[in-house]
Amino acid sequence: MAGFFYCAESWRCGIRAVPENFLPMSAPLLDPAKTDLPDGPVLFAVELSGDDVRVTGSHRHARGQMFGAVRGLLSVGTDDSQWVVPAIHAVWLPPNRAHSVRSHGAFAGWSVYVSESACADLPKEPCTVRTSGLLREAVSRAASWHDGALNEAQMRVAGVILDETRSSPREALGLPMPRDARVLRIAHALADNLADNRRLDEWADWGGVAPRTLTRRFIDETGFSFSEWRQRARLMQALEMLASGAAVTTIALDLGYENVSAFIAMFRRTFGVTPTQYFV
């Protein structure tokens, strides 16, 4: 993978966006000869942690794929939608579904590739799910396996991964991304530095788009206004920070809120509980 701006804790630093066509493509997580093999072992798993942003253009696999980040946000695109996904969630893609991925900050994550036959009772459409500790531990175990047929113990672990994929709660937190190239560039810059409090007209000037057009495109293409989209992106990052043990005050200030009370109020309006109650 090629170099980019790096911060080990991307939510603590201001990462400035680079236009999408300046981002170099990353090497595949796994040999395409495996991901394009519809049969064979019921699954392959891989983990990767590096110092670089991960960017892949649109591609597809013969196998189903479940993947997620260990830290930070991922932008995930399919034929008809794009989302921002926090590290406490994972993305499921059925076999042969075109998709692209971009990490916001250095990538650390995992991926599981499921044989086509084993996908029969898994979700038929792309979706985001909340990951469990059990799923992450099982994936980590599977990522250590060598090539070849799976033994009985490995098949039991693979069964756990499939069961967790099948039963994990579906989440609506995947944030739609705009399709207009100019507006998408602004959305990526926002996701790269959620503490940036520039107003809509300032972002419009930065992105070379009229403020009215920016306002209209966000609503038409994401279902959210510009300010709602930014707030939702911040709240997804807040969930990750809460899960990692960050203090509520630290989260509020690092994500650009004027004070802790404003953050808590926004969190409660969205999720119905305070930040400290969310994972209880």
Give a short synopsis of this structure.
The protein has 280 residues and is α+β, with helices and mostly antiparallel strands. The protein has 9 helices and 11 strands.
Structure description:
This protein has 280 residues and is an alpha+beta fold. The protein has 2 domains: 10-171, Jelly Rolls; 178-277, Arc Repressor Mutant, subunit A (Orthogonal Bundle). Helices cover 35% and strands 19% of the residues. The protein contains 9 helices and 11 strands. The strands form 2 sheets. It has a 6-stranded antiparallel β-sheet with strand order 1-8-3-6-9-10, covered by helices on one side. Strands 2-7-4-5-11 form a 5-stranded antiparallel β-sheet. Strand 4 (73-78) and strand 5 (82-85) form a beta hairpin. Helix 2 (133-142) runs antiparallel to helix 3 and helix 8 packs across helix 9 (260-271).
